[in-house]
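Please predict the structure of the following assembly.
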Amino acid sequence: MRPSGRNLSQMRPISIETGVMAHAEGSCLIRVGKTHVLCTASLEETPPRFLKGTGLGWVTAEYGMLPRATNTRNRREAAQGKQSGRTQEIQRLIGRSLRAGVDRSALGERQITIDCDVIQADGGTRCASITGGWVALRLAVNKLLKAGAITSDPIMDHVAAVSCGIYAGQAVLDLDYAEDSEAGTDGNFVLTGAGRLIEVQMSAEGATFSRDQMGQLLDLAEGGMADLVAAQKAAVA
Amino acid sequence: MRPSGRNLSQMRPISIETGVMAHAEGSCLIRVGKTHVLCTASLEETPPRFLKGTGLGWVTAEYGMLPRATNTRNRREAAQGKQSGRTQEIQRLIGRSLRAGVDRSALGERQITIDCDVIQADGGTRCASITGGWVALRLAVNKLLKAGAITSDPIMDHVAAVSCGIYAGQAVLDLDYAEDSEAGTDGNFVLTGAGRLIEVQMSAEGATFSRDQMGQLLDLAEGGMADLVAAQKAAVA
Amino acid sequence: MRPSGRNLSQMRPISIETGVMAHAEGSCLIRVGKTHVLCTASLEETPPRFLKGTGLGWVTAEYGMLPRATNTRNRREAAQGKQSGRTQEIQRLIGRSLRAGVDRSALGERQITIDCDVIQADGGTRCASITGGWVALRLAVNKLLKAGAITSDPIMDHVAAVSCGIYAGQAVLDLDYAEDSEAGTDGNFVLTGAGRLIEVQMSAEGATFSRDQMGQLLDLAEGGMADLVAAQKAAVA
Amino acid sequence: MRPSGRNLSQMRPISIETGVMAHAEGSCLIRVGKTHVLCTASLEETPPRFLKGTGLGWVTAEYGMLPRATNTRNRREAAQGKQSGRTQEIQRLIGRSLRAGVDRSALGERQITIDCDVIQADGGTRCASITGGWVALRLAVNKLLKAGAITSDPIMDHVAAVSCGIYAGQAVLDLDYAEDSEAGTDGNFVLTGAGRLIEVQMSAEGATFSRDQMGQLLDLAEGGMADLVAAQKAAVA
Amino acid sequence: MRPSGRNLSQMRPISIETGVMAHAEGSCLIRVGKTHVLCTASLEETPPRFLKGTGLGWVTAEYGMLPRATNTRNRREAAQGKQSGRTQEIQRLIGRSLRAGVDRSALGERQITIDCDVIQADGGTRCASITGGWVALRLAVNKLLKAGAITSDPIMDHVAAVSCGIYAGQAVLDLDYAEDSEAGTDGNFVLTGAGRLIEVQMSAEGATFSRDQMGQLLDLAEGGMADLVAAQKAAVA
Amino acid sequence: MRPSGRNLSQMRPISIETGVMAHAEGSCLIRVGKTHVLCTASLEETPPRFLKGTGLGWVTAEYGMLPRATNTRNRREAAQGKQSGRTQEIQRLIGRSLRAGVDRSALGERQITIDCDVIQADGGTRCASITGGWVALRLAVNKLLKAGAITSDPIMDHVAAVSCGIYAGQAVLDLDYAEDSEAGTDGNFVLTGAGRLIEVQMSAEGATFSRDQMGQLLDLAEGGMADLVAAQKAAVA
């Protein structure tokens, strides 16, 4: 009954290719079905101003989408002279999610910027950005550890994300664009490898939802995490 | 143990004063403790361009904060030349939440803009904006009904919101600023009068959370709704 | 013959409520008829850069208007990405006027920002902003004096403002919106408590004016000052 | 006692050279002492949108200053991405002043834009812009009359402007930069050829002023008008 | 003697992979050594406004660079709120170059936008954008031809580009970043498949150049075109 | 056969009037036919930040055009809130060209900004800006030399520019607007007094060109340089 023929609780195929950018301290191209996001981690050895002298580091994120990542061309935000509210909302979410998995004291006074650029979009770009962004971050931190710049690992656990929603009356895992644009309710779930929750964002897009439905979506998300964390592990091995 | 001396499941005092703006089709000043938000509804008899000819109406929202609503003065967004990511995120949430309680077909091809301007801030401004914004919307729609411009009520139910969080290890209802700035996890919950969910936004701010804690916060939010809806009813009576 | 039924030389009722903002060093809500402006004074213990090392302080002002302060909704300046020419002109006037009543050497190297936000507009918002802004400034300076941060009072006199105009061929005091939008000539007058002039701005809006008419308007303004200064005195007593 | 050695009531030399721009419908270079402003009138045969169908025309103005018109280089407003508050205030004044001398019904549904670009600045640039702007406008309207596009002259009278101020305790006419930067009070006066007032803008810059002083400045301005109108007449003859 | 060990007249390896974007009417990923650019063609069936009713079509281009395409991270232009002068210069060049190879009358009243997004940069990004942009354009036009939307081919010839420069005193073909940053003179050459010139842009970056040197660079560019056109032919075959 | 009646290799009359701006360290008004550009050099005794401590100076340029420099009025860039791509491209070219003639080490850690403001445009404004900009620069540097601030002359040679193009099938020197808007190919050539090349920019505007034509245009440019350099020499003598 899903446009893609998937089971209700079936993720799209996930692939994470690392080392795709010659210059970045960490990088990967994550593909979740036809959603493709290029994630890079850029290290700066000075923290943002508001952290000077605190001993704490910072992880932040920026998000963008190529104009023709989508079915019809979107206007380039650089040409429009500003980032949309949607873009800002997403990049704030990515940054907040990744920081929740980092011990900023162990990172020390430095900053890592995660750039997530959507090459092709088919739903779930913010979730793919978080999942791939964590891999880029992991690789950049590995470099710091290997170089002896830091001695204890600031990354406390995996961080990954997946969307779920009520599509045609049923709870389904990992919405693609065809489902997302029809879903009455959808949610984005960010979890740690150990299953702790970092972010839950559920919205009634046309239909309100019950507490039961909320539980069903969360069940699906927890199930999907296994695939995502496995893909992350394989990528950074 | 709460800075305000409230019980864990106790809301701050709520007051909603209507008709505070001479020109608006609907208006109220909502006070949730020391958080004060002025909400107005402005009616336009033409819909936004993308709805021309669809028979559907639109409800949208804008959010602002007076520079000295807060403890230290914030730079005025108009002077900075743009709305912050936070502002855009909030006003998108308010608009989405209110639309979830509206039958846009019954509203017809017109637009109602809800302006939520924070006069004084002490935590929970987005939730107070939604709760007060609904009152302004209700009053503006009442005018349309009374004037015979529309014949069936497009407002399907109450919409109200409250924040909850884990403060000092305990789940508490209706965070004020002192709590919000210390809470490890916080959430915003938008519900209908009938208890259906419209938006759930939970974030780990420093501490991840469990599914159990999520349930506790939601329990508290459901409890707080009674007070909010009662205040709305009294205001629009 | 005036739409409001007032005499030619009659001010609208003035009320100034102080202490309306919990966080500001000084604040008031000034009501001149149906024109309502919220004025706050925010103190910073460092002066603007161009005054560093001069021993002089600074008083500046910002002005805004809620979108639905007026009969039809105005676009929010923060959303438009810039302050209009009118807004900038008004806030420059407020700052200049208030500085004219301050001994900046006695104030010392600190800055006080006066925010004037129009909650409801019915003509004369810039004048109400100056009159109310002075009250907020007075209260903030009182705090500095009481705390012993400054020893001699930098406020040299009251500063207040009123508009006058030629309406239906007659000189009238304190134009409301109905008059202002029809007046052939109008003027804004800023004076000290002792009757010295700070700013005179008269414009032919449709009809040029004579020196005699200019004198009549100034006479009216001088008369109106008594009410304004009395209201200020009562407010800060 | 004036830096320039002028008498208290002596204007700087005025010269107005017309036809300096090959493309404009009307143009002049006005020199008031060392203040040089290039003024052009550009005609469009359609009015601004808000006047469509009203039968009325529009006159508007824009103001700019070359970066090195002044003693130290100013940042180019185009590079900064916005016009300063001062620029907007001035161009609004120029437009308002020139419109006060025009019968917009006789002009008909067309728009004339007056560009005033300060080539060199030595005080009084806004006044020179108004005086020169009127000449450019006069020349453009002459073309319309000559071509038979309009049949009755929409220009009702000369419009010109001059600044006066209290310098070293004395009222002086036509402030240059050395005086302007020291003057305790200054004012800009826009008058018609017949001596009617269009705009009066007086500001206490450091010293408040009396009604008597206001009268003295206005006396001086009225005196200066003779020279300005004579120069305009010679230019457009 | 070249950092890469290439001969003076040797291009870097060129690869052009087509069909890389699911949604675009035409797309390719061009790799010239370590410079990788994603090029897409987006078709709109309406022309820009200035061409309405002329029977002519339009080809335009936009250029961007991922923040970490380069050795150190560049600020995202969308976040900065504007495209740099360099970006605008490059995208104007790409658009102009591609239009020079198109019969806009045969294209008819439609618009094709070529987006060139640099994934990884190692010198020569504008040249790779032109070469790859032509492939995306070719593929989009092929679709139009196949669909019968146009009947005669509007593409008159291949368009490709290469940079040359004086590096360490010698004329070299196809500068990479290491060479480009040291070259005293460099040039960009856009040619047609038949060897006609479209754009020549040569700049003295530190060292002026002679007419002879200009000839040498042009010789090299003509030589490089064979490889570029061959790669284009293979890609679109 | 040229609209102006000039020979194919004939420049328009050139005049360069120096000392036209009272405040600038160097200034001239250059007239090339009906193209008039005001060029000023502004000296700052501190270099841009990226050169601090390097011992090197900087020469940069900004370009603007009065709104009515052209046949129909252009929108003022300051009012639009940004400089166009064309403007940025031109001012980058002017700065690059002038720097190519300067020994930045001899200039020392200071910055000279060349402002080129087009008063009237009839084609070739960027070339006139470079030619006139060099004169302003030369005069400012002369002041530094005379004052003993620098001891060896940082200006290595004259820098001047001219445009050429294929008009009506023939190569012609110094295009005016009537020719420029019709030319199939045009080019801008920046040369030193000794005939070395600094910039060559040739574009096919509607018609591609051959290497032979490129040579013809360069021949013409070299011929035109004699007149330009002679005019510069006369101006700075």
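The radius of gyration of chain D is 18 Å. Strands of chain D lie at 14-18, 26-32, 35-44, 58-65, 111-120, 159-167, 170-173, 185-192, 197-204.
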